[in-house]
Design goal:
Blueprint (H helix, E strand, L loop, with lengths): L1 H46 L3 E8 L1 H14 L5 E6 L2 E9 L2 H11 L7 E4 L3
Antiparallel strand pairs: 1-3, 1-4, 2-3
Length: 122
């Protein structure tokens, strides 16, 4: 009888300790998630939000030619021609997540092998 009471007490201590430890780790997980969200928000404020696909980076004539060809191949997707000294950039689309941009990139890579995903700045 004494042995079963002792075993029952040990069992209760183990169960209560496990529950307490689990609830503590859950609280720390929630804290970590909140910290991660906060860091992501500050990153977006500093570096902008979203992605584009860059098809070309170089001289103006080729950038314009690339833009026209892309408009012909994919008329429903917006195109952007940017100049950042000393080079012209042909960029297309707007994607909220890197995953969306990567999926679109797979379609464009067939015709534009040098295409890359780039994050948008401010």
């Amino acid at each position: 009888m004494k042995k079963s009471k002792f075993t029952m007490c040990i069992f209760l201590v183990v169960v209560l300790t496990t529950n307490f430890t689990y609830s503590q780790s859950k609280k720390s997980d929630n804290t970590l998630i909140k910290e991660l969200i906060s860091k992501k928000k500050s990153f977006n404020k500093e570096f902008g939000y979203g992605f584009r696909i860059q098809l070309y980076n170089g001289n103006e004539a080729v950038a314009i030619k690339t833009m026209r060809k892309f408009k012909s191949d994919f008329p429903d997707i917006e195109t952007h021609l940017e100049y950042k000294q000393p080079e012209w950039k042909t960029q297309v689309g707007f994607y909220k997540t890197k995953l969306e941009a990567d999926r679109a990139l797979l379609n464009f890579k067939r015709k534009y092998q040098s295409a890359i995903v780039i994050p948008l700045g401010k």
